[in-house]
Amino acid sequence: LNCENLQDEHIKWADYVLISAIVGQKKSTKKIINIVKKMRKPIVAGGPLFTTGWEEFIEVDTFVLGEVEDIFSVFIKDLKNCTLKKIYSNEKSPDIRKTPIPDWDLINMPNYYSMSVQLSRGCPYNCEFCDVVQLNGRISRMKSKEQLIAELDSLYRISWRGKVFFVDDNFIGNKAKIKKEYLPTIIEWQKKKKYPFTFTTQVSINLADDDGLMKLMVDAGFTTVFVGIETPNTDSLKETGKHQNINRDL
Prior knowledge:
There is one protein chain. By secondary structure, the chain is of the alpha/beta class. Helices cover 33% and strands 16% of the residues. It has helices at 9-12, 26-38, 48-51, 72-80, 132-136, 145-157, 175-192, 211-220, 234-239, and strands at residues 17-20, 43-46, 62-65, 87-89, 115-117, 120-121, 141-142, 162-166, 197-203, 222-227. The strands form 3 sheets. It has a 4-stranded parallel sheet. Strands 5-8-9-10 form a 4-stranded parallel sheet. Strands 6-7 form a two-stranded antiparallel ribbon.
């Protein structure tokens, strides 16, 4: 809905309506659910909003909660057999080295300012206000270098040029591997392709402690990073568990 308005025609043809949302989209998500239910279409819902608060959405027929890789095949089988359960959930974190490349043909590329890729999930920190640890854990699980290059290649082949957002929870969650293995691989790929992409990502403030890491990111084509400052107030940082921002000049 960030690209075009929802019309009845978008819903009428469907056997099921699948909805994914983050917490910040809660209000608009409830509006969509009401529209879909008035049209008597069954709803399957997943994503962070539902994983952390599915009980609030009594109108939803089926929930797919948590990371989907290990449970989606079961969901699809039950869908085909018309035996859908109320809840499908994953008890453990999946191996994202098995995650397939996105099917870019499903979107209208000109609608987008940036494409997204994901190298890792999880964050080693545990800020009280953030749901990343609840959703993806504190261990930074990473795709293989080959997977990453395959995803970049897939975007390159469909003629995407420009901005690519690494949507990792914390791109430097495993600094050692990022520095030693992944950034050199990205740099090599960018040079071979004559730098078709500029990268954006989100990181913790300790990036500023490592000049070598920052240089590698610049060499790889990173032009923007999002850093969570939240507040310079030490008491507030302690209260919310954002200890990585304490004892430094923000």
